[in-house]
Design goal:
Elements (H helix, E strand, L loop, with lengths): L9 E9 L6 H4 L37 H5 L3 H16 L6 H4 L3 E5 L7 H13 L3 H12 L2 H6 L3 H11 L5 E4 L3 H16 L5 E8 L4 H9 L11 H6 L9 E9 H6 L6 E9 L7 H12 L7 E7 L7 H14 L2 E7 L1 H4 L6 H15 L21 E7 L5 E7 L7
Parallel strand pairs: 2-3, 2-4, 7-8, 7-9
Antiparallel strand pairs: 1-5, 1-6, 4-5, 6-10, 9-10
Helix pairs in contact: 3-8, 5-6, 13-14
Length: 410
């Protein structure tokens, strides 16, 4: 997108989070208590692949009609629930006049596949090598068109609109981690440019699916065996551990928020994205270019970083090279890979990282280090800014800089 002159300030006024760590923002606040937090991981259900299952949630808290719940798949329930939490947190829920002006930017997948059909194709493919012919033989009689239509990604945005009465414009983004980057960037740019005053943006992933694990394993992306934190996985062959996540943010123009008395968690000072060809060194170069494009001076010294690294090799090592370059430039990155705690949320991963950064600024500290090594170091003193990295396991790179809103300016 083109550069915007006279940019308006973008505040985060509402957060909705659901993951393996808990069912709301309050539960995730435990990350910032200064005490160690143990990741919730299931290593048996889909062995040899560990994953972070969704915490026990009463979806009726945000989706009161049972008829609405019945027609949603799990990933839609997670997203609609997290969206409702964000609207409630921002003081928007129930305000019909404000909801009419609230826009949507949603990152979502294409719904859940029919595992039986996939297995049938794979079994036949093992006997015959012609995938194109098999697809023509199996799919016409196995797939139900009505089922496919119900799984379109824009159904998540539609359900959010229906359940929570959000009736502004709606945009849906597909493309794994890049979708999450694009949804937040779109909301951010529209507010900066004066095209919107308030946007609900985020994404959702149900990781507890055999079809999803099958697809990622075919691409050799998954971590096998006992749970290991992100950086350890990268050093030991690489792979990501999926996590069920719903993450939504209410982004709001500063004066609009002030006029209705909404308090900010933080402001998004800058956000830039890229999509490289992923040749060797591309990720390191892209992140270095992105931080220059942020256009916001970052003081030298300690720099809190919430990394969205997946653990997939060699991409994760390239992100570490970028962090090393920051050190050479006079910064001292104090890094946390939040995927070690909630798993990799794919479409929801960057929205979750920005939510965690906003919570970190509200609480004045990062989560404790997940590993006793030279990557995740202790942090002392207050924090005024957090850099969030988003590096997709296959495509998509992004950086977001969040800063604390001082009491004098809030």
């Amino acid at each position: 997108m083109g550069r915007i002159t006279d940019k308006r300030e973008v505040w985060i006024t509402g957060i909705g989070l659901a993951s393996s760590l808990g069912a709301d923002t309050e539960a995730h606040g435990a990350l910032f208590s200064g005490e160690p937090v143990e990741a919730s991981v299931n290593e048996d259900r889909y062995a040899p692949y560990p994953l972070h299952p969704l915490a026990e949630i009463d979806f009726g808290r945000q989706i009161p009609k049972k008829s609405d719940l019945r027609q949603m798949e799990a990933w839609q329930r997670i997203g609609v629930y997290a969206a409702g939490l964000a609207l409630t947190d921002a003081g928007v829920a129930g305000d019909s006049a404000l909801l009419d002006r609230t826009h949507l930017a949603v990152a979502a997948g294409s719904g859940e596949r029919d595992t039986k059909v996939d297995c049938d194709v794979l079994e036949r493919l093992d006997q015959r090598g012609d995938a194109a012919v098999l697809a023509k033989e199996v799919l016409p009689g196995a797939l139900r068109p009505t089922l496919f239509l119900a799984q379109l990604s824009n159904m998540l945005a539609g359900n959010i609109s229906i359940v929570h009465s959000v009736t502004g414009s709606s945009r849906t983004f597909m493309g794994e981690e890049m979708a999450g980057l694009a949804a937040i960037e779109n909301a951010f740019r529209r507010i900066q440019a004066g095209q919107s005053d308030i946007v609900l943006a985020g994404g959702a992933l149900n990781a507890e699916r055999e079809d999803l694990l099958l697809g990622y394993e075919i691409g050799h992306n998954l971590w096998r065996g006992a749970h290991r934190p992100v950086w350890a996985r990268a050093r030991e062959g690489g792979g990501f551990t999926p996590g069920s996540v719903g993450a939504f943010l209410v982004l709001e123009e500063r004066s609009h928020a002030e006029a209705r008395g909404a308090a900010p968690y933080a402001k998004i000072s800058a956000l830039e994205t890229e999509r490289t060809g992923r040749q060797p060194g591309d990720v390191t170069r892209a992140l270095s270019e992105l931080i220059a494009r942020l256009g916001v001076p970052i003081p030298t010294g300690p720099l809190p970083v919430l990394s969205g690294a997946s653990g997939v090799a060699p991409i994760t090592e390239e992100e570490l090279s970028f962090l090393d370059d920051l050190t050479a430039d006079g910064h001292a990155p104090i890094t946390r890979a939040y995927g070690s705690l909630i798993g990799h949320g794919v479409e929801a991963h960057l929205p979750a990282g920005i939510a965690f950064a906003a919570l970190a600024l509200r609480h004045g500290q990062l989560p404790p280090p997940s590993e006793a090594d030279d990557i995740e170091l202790p942090l002392t003193g207050a924090i005024d800014r957090v850099l969030v990295t988003g590096v997709g396991h296959w495509r998509g790179e992004g950086l977001a800089l969040l800063e604390r809103v001082s009491e004098k300016t809030a």
